[in-house]
Batch of 2 targets.
Target 1
Amino acid sequence: MESRDGAAVALPTSVPLTRKYPWLGELARFGGGMVFLWPSIILFGAFIFYPLIKSVYLGFFVSDPFGRGQEFVGFDQYRQVLTSSEFRKSLLVTVLFAFYTVPTGLALGLVFALLANQRLRGALFFRTVFSSTIAASVAVAAVMWLMLLNPSAGIVNWALGQFDLPRVNWLTDPQWRESWDSGPALMAVSLTTIWLNIGFTTLILLAALQNIPDELYESARVDGASPWSILRHITLPMLSPALLFVVVISTIIAFQSFGQIHILTRGGPLDATDVIVYSIYSDAFINFEYGAAAVKAVALFLLVLTFTLVQFRFLERRVFYR
Amino acid sequence: MTLRTHYGRWLRVALTYAVLILGALLVLLPIYLAVVNSLLPKEDAISYPPKLFAPHPQWINFKKAMDAVPLGRYMFNSAVQAGVITIGQLVTSTLAAYAFAFMRFRFRNFLFILFLSTLMVPWEVTIVPNFQTVQLMGDKFGGYILSLDSYQALTIPFLASAFGTFLLRQHFLTIPLELRDAAAIDGYGHLRFLWHVVLPLSKPALGTLAVFSFLQSWNQYLWPLLVTNSDNYRTVQIGLAGLASQEIDSINVVMAGTVIALLPMLIIIVLFQRQLVRGLMSGALKG
């Protein structure tokens, strides 16, 4: 009885034939697998692999301002777009944005998950509250923060006023100071994003925490370990696969952010929040420069790929798998 | 000694609660203020200091929001979009995960890695060619298959999911192979085994995938922004952004629209929080 061999069960009459021609059985098995796989393969091919290759191809052509004629320019457009000061600014803004949002989000999610996972009265309530922001869409979150960050009536500036701090024009000031590259607008977009992602991070870490077997904690307690050393030597190592997952996924999410920027700042003021995805959008769908947008899309793909591989390489060593 | 440890424990619990309550306040504050502002009269909603309560709720704001833009229609469109994508992903992911978990054929591992590699391609990277594909299909086939401003454009590109396939495969691998052998002896083919044995055993994983797919598609922004341009197909996210820029002077009305857009998802999350955590536990995140 070939246990995993579907063809032998499904097509019993073909047994003599397949004994004569072994490749027939193999073909039948492959066909059997394809029966289950073709919907996904066609969709991935049409909407992920084909467009990925076409993006690379589109980068070789310059479109006229009306998106009609296309002229082949080879690598010229890649060189031109990728070395432009505009793209360099976008790259910097994108990386800064990830730098603002990923570590903060991870730290908050970890603290919330660790505390809400304890055996306390009302723990379930807190778990629900902390996971609740995954219900908010990027549009809902951005419109809410539009209200909170309102320069004259928003609660953020009101809170700053309570500490005698000056009001900030969160969405319209490009820079804190002349010499700084980032400003309140990027901070505002980051705050919105951190809030939006808290739910996801906390939920993943809560699930991972509940997967840690109780016996580990009990034997540590019997050995007289302090809560601090239990955290350091049991909880965090056991949590490390989930932490790696959260870091990788939230970095990818950060590099893909668009909605909050479209609603809050439209890439402005003075390109202060013009992340790569936003500049792809404005190149392609406002200026109809498909070629330039495609070049940036390829660059974004390589950026995400590099970051993910680097994170895996450097963090995986610290990850403890069972 | 006992007194000291007892005191230390009490202090730790108090500190834990302090941080938990502070965190909960910060997380809930935006949602709370959105609700308060959705119930305030216009002049109170943009006043300084910000109002923290709405003693005389103005329910009319919700009607104003519904009148300013067809929010009901947008919600319906979003529900169709998210519903179709969710069902589609459940079907395609189940089939693919079954093949990867229970069948043996040439190139299986290669194909599985190919599936996983799609997770590395952000959707934003492919939007320009995908937009052109939809545009071209519309021009060629007159909108029968795929065209701009249609439910097909909102859903078809997302009907397969590598995440879903991976999640379900990991779960299917926990089902003992002896079950497959026993079913085969009873004359079950793959489809009957899948339907009568595997699916009933996989309800938690399927539920988790369903909630995630629904949330993710309901919350889409960039793609619906690009492919819809009439109220007939516009989703609630794009409608909400439109409401916010159209009624920029009436924060209360904008917040009423925001609450309407948020509420259905919030209810789903509160109801399914436990299942979500449980599904994630048994799912892809294990070691």
Note: Chain A has two domains: 6-53, 81-316.
Target 2
Amino acid sequence: MSEHIVPVRVYVTIFLVLLVGTALTVLAAFQDFSVRLGTHEIPFNTVIALAIAVTKATFVVLYFMHVRYSSRLVWVVVTSALFWLAIMFALTFSDYWTRGWLPVGY
Amino acid sequence: MSHAASAEPHGHPALQHHFENMEQQREAGTLGMWVFLVTEIMFFGGMFLAYTLYRSAYPSAFASASNHLDITMGAVNTGVLILSSFTMAMSVYFTQIGKSRPQILCLIATIILGLTFLGIKAVEYRQKYEDSLIPGRLIPTRPFNPAVAYEGEVNEHKLHLIGNATVHQVELFYWIYFAMTGMHALHMIIGAGLLTFLLYFSIKGRYGPEYHSPVEVIGLYWHFVDIVWIFLFPLLYLLGRHLEHV
């Protein structure tokens, strides 16, 4: 069998990283990180929460789900999911967020 | 594929006739599970899209509703689910190295942690029921009708509306909250069922270093459900907390 067996200390490390990430995201939620740029307010709280969530999810996928040690075919399938998800979000918001940008003549 | 090889008797009773060997069979199983998980990502992705859309449309209403959720229960449940993912990963590990007893104990731990998550979730749902926060008329005798706190009033059982938020917009948040956490809970229930199936055949001694695809593949599903919660927890419970005292 050419299968890779992930050592226990890797699993324990990932587990601790995930717990620390959860604690960090709870602590960060109560601080106000929003930044004002002219008339726009940039919601950095959302950016920080999503960055921590994406980091946690990446650790789960790579180590608990063994993708780091999996075949290229599995890599392609996992990436394709993110790719199609990005298409769904990008095309939907290119509609919703641009409504009313141009005056419509009736 | 050589015909001479296929005529030989199979090396392992679990090897299906259309695979060359156990390694190929295992890789095909893992790939198949990943393809299924891609469809699951798109399925939950649609709900995350709806969430993003309405959160950007009604930010203060979503913050008001989000702040009313129980952050302690949400955080404890996140920890429970992460621990269950760890015990699941350890169960796969012990199957790979052929240690049956710790593998079975890890499976039992995973099932208990999964049920703990569902129990805490049920307590939360009950609180929402008591506060009349179940959206629409899903429960005909208790329609959506939350008590709203007046300015400056501190009452944890009442909803504190931030800025120009309306009760109707808050109801929209609760539709999304129950759809997403409900669908996630359904996946947990299915997962607990699959783990019970694994436990039964693990006790019968079916899995070992040569054959552990079912443990690995159901593990992938369990980790996926964990990942969905990793996103649900900050998005539903945490965003908007810093606005609480504004």
Note: The domain at 45-243 of chain B is CATH 1.20.120.80 (Four Helix Bundle (Hemerythrin (Met), subunit A)).
